[in-house]
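Handout, page 2. Input:
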Amino acid sequence: MKLDVINLDGGSAGEVELDEALFGLEPRADILHRVVRWQRNKAQAGTHKVKSRSEVSYSTKKIYRQKGTGGARHGSRKAPIFRKGGIYKGPVVRSHAHDLPKKVRALGLKMALSDKARNGALVVIENVASEGKTKALAAQIAKLGWKRALIIDGADVNESFAKAARNIEGLDILPTIGANVYDILKRDTLVITKAGVEALEARLK
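Output:
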């Protein structure tokens, strides 16, 4: 499939041929859901923690005699039923990550790219060469109508462009290796440089 290439000023910069295997697939919600869930679970800190019976600070002395009280036969104030006792089966520090086959992850990325292309939310740009001024870049972005956009550059992000873009609300920029399903889907517009298209095709073939 062919797509028009523009530059930051909005002018035409020719055409680019996009690989159907990357940008022409039929998106599947179940695959996209699996990949996004894998990403978010992997990013979850899992640092929640409570103290169990063996960790609370309290005397280990038997609280009252075993027989003759008419009450339950307790031996420790650390028991979960007592105030300030340990928590029973509470959350512990752990990883929420789970495995997902590489082929499914790659397929999810292809489908995310295809979804943007299918919905007309994919833009190919010649390059992101910039003078490094946020005000000038913000004016160009506003003229192009990108309110919530993700820009994917080549192997390395243009340093001056990244510096100018980092304070513009709703604009993210990633190198090709950082392209992922979650970030692509959560933005309204996906912008890829020509170098980024070539790098993505090399990465996913």
